[in-house]
């Protein structure tokens, strides 16, 4: 398909630019409202003293998420797709031109809330992080498999809600590892901060610039 | 766009077939895991004695949802899109051919979990019902507006979780009505059954076949 070929070409340019500056980069994906921005807020709070972070936000409409992130003092660029259900490499390329990559250690791209289409569009990131909230149900890795197969990390978020939903953590893990045995799994809550330190340590280790 | 024109042509045929048999039909849409199938289960439990219901399920992979619904003794056809992020009229046309419409009062189509793309594809249904769970956040009507604009009904589900999430029902209603002032709004919980009777009554009133 011509569209994906063109997208992948630009993604390769993005990756060369990002990695050329020694940056680590992640593309965070999930259903709408799984907690991508909340996890970002917790992460920036904890890492902003040791890691220089910039965020590229992707949304169908509004700049609410960039506003939330900008409150923490990090550069945040909002891409509004005006109906597009996923980010594409060209949109990220334009956003990268507005950042000073020499001054950064970590680039986070938060994608449009959609558990299907973003799985197929490389943006030039080092890896994809898929967020699944406990409230969505434990069958999602089997029902929406491509996203879990193409991700390197799974964050199971909203573990504070486990007592009130019919989601079994072991089932989520088993289903996710059945689709992708290489997945590195974190369990977090943005309300209680459970699991956030482990996730931040993993991210910080990879964000170290070569000294 | 040629794709949408062709889709709308088939949707018109579907609608003529469905309405020609005196059936009411709804297309239920939401993010993954908002509770579409759970609401269907509660609805069928309550209406199966008075309304003859059939369900067409759409998913990227698996037939789990059709299996859940079939347990209640209603005809359930599973469409697997193998990666497609939304149902299209052609897939529904094929499914309709497998149902005996003369024996039905209500047709429910459960779409693929996606708050973006299904908003643009007419399947031939009478109207769209969008489900939003309290756990997704109260900003979603503004962030994913097209789905709320193209729907006639909004069901705010999982109200039993309100004490544990930062979602304000008044804000959800205000944001949704800002996008679409005509929306008919229900508030439900599939755990406590709150709001399910009101929703079922609304559905039953419209499902009455002309005697
Ligand atoms: N109880 C609980 N609520 C959470 C948690 N994380 C996020 N939330 C809530 O979930 C809702 C959605 O969170 P967001 O961070 O906006 O989710 P998102 O994935 O960025 O949403 P989009 O960008 O719109 O797709 C908000 O009401 C948050 O307060 C958590 O760990 N526990
Ligand atoms: N606490 C609570 N949990 C609910 C409610 N409704 C559904 N759930 C849970 O939410 C999860 C997802 O429900 P489903 O009915 O599978 O959602 P869905 O929208 O059909 O999901 P997909 O078809 O995969 O997009 C399951 O774990 C349900 O048990 C509710 O009102 N309250
Ligand atoms: Mg967000
Ligand atoms: Mg379902
Ligand atoms: Zn898409
Ligand atoms: Zn799509």
Q: Can you put this structure into words, describing what you see?
A:
The structure is a homodimer of 211-residue chains. By secondary structure, chain A is α/β, with parallel strands linked by helices. The first copy, chain A, has a single domain, classed as 3-Layer(aba) Sandwich (Rossmann fold). A seven-stranded parallel sheet of chain A has the order 3-2-4-1-5-6-7, sandwiched between helices. In chain A, helix 3 links the parallel strand 2 and strand 3. The interface between A and B is medium-sized, with 33 and 33 residues. The complex binds guanosine-5'-triphosphate (2 copies), magnesium ion (2 copies) and zinc ion (2 copies).
The CATH homologous superfamily of chain A is termed: P-loop containing nucleotide triphosphate hydrolases
**Would you identify the regions of chain A where 5 or more consecutive residues have pLDDT less than 50?**
none
Spatial strand arrangement across the major sheet of chain A:
3-2-4-1-5-6-7
Q: From the 3D coordinates, which CATH architecture of chain A would you assign?
A: 3-Layer(aba) Sandwich
- Small molecules held by this entry: guanosine-5'-triphosphate, magnesium ion, zinc ion
Count all strands of chain A and give the number.
Answer: 7
- Please name the CATH topology of chain A: Rossmann fold
Question: What would you call the structural class of chain A?
Answer: alpha/beta
Give me the number of helical elements of chain A. Answer: 8
Roughly how much helix do the residues of chain A carry, as a percent range? 25-40%
Profile the largest sheet of chain A.
7 strands, parallel
* Quaternary organization: homodimer
Strand content of chain A: 15-25%
Number of domains of chain A: 1
Termini gap of chain A? 41 Å
Q: Rounded to an integer, what's the Rg of chain A over CA atoms?
A: 16 Å
């Amino acid at each position: 398909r011509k569209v994906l070929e063109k997208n992948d070409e630009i993604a390769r340019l993005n990756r060369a630019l990002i990695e050329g500056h020694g940056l680590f980069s992640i593309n965070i994906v999930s259903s709408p409202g799984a907690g991508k921005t909340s996890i970002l807020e917790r992460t920036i709070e904890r890492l902003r003293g040791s890691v220089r972070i910039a965020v590229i936000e992707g949304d169908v409409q509004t700049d609410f998420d960039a506003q939330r992130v900008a409150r923490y003092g990090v550069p945040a660029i909002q891409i509004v797709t005006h109906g597009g259900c996923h980010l594409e490499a060209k949109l990220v390329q334009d956003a990268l031109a507005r950042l000073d990559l020499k001054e950064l250690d970590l680039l986070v791209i938060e994608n449009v809330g959609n558990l299907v289409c973003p799985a197929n569009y490389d943006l030039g990131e080092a890896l994809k992080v898929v967020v699944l909230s406990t409230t969505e149900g434990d069958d999602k890795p089997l029902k929406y498999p491509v996203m879990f197969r193409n991700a390197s990390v799974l964050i199971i978020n909203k573990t504070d809600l486990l007592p009130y939903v019919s989601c079994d953590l072991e089932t989520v893990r088993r289903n996710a590892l059945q689709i992708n045995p290489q997945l590195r799994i974190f369990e977090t809550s943005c309300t209680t901060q459970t699991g956030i330190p482990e996730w931040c340590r993993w991210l910080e280790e990879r964000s170290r610039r070569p000294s």
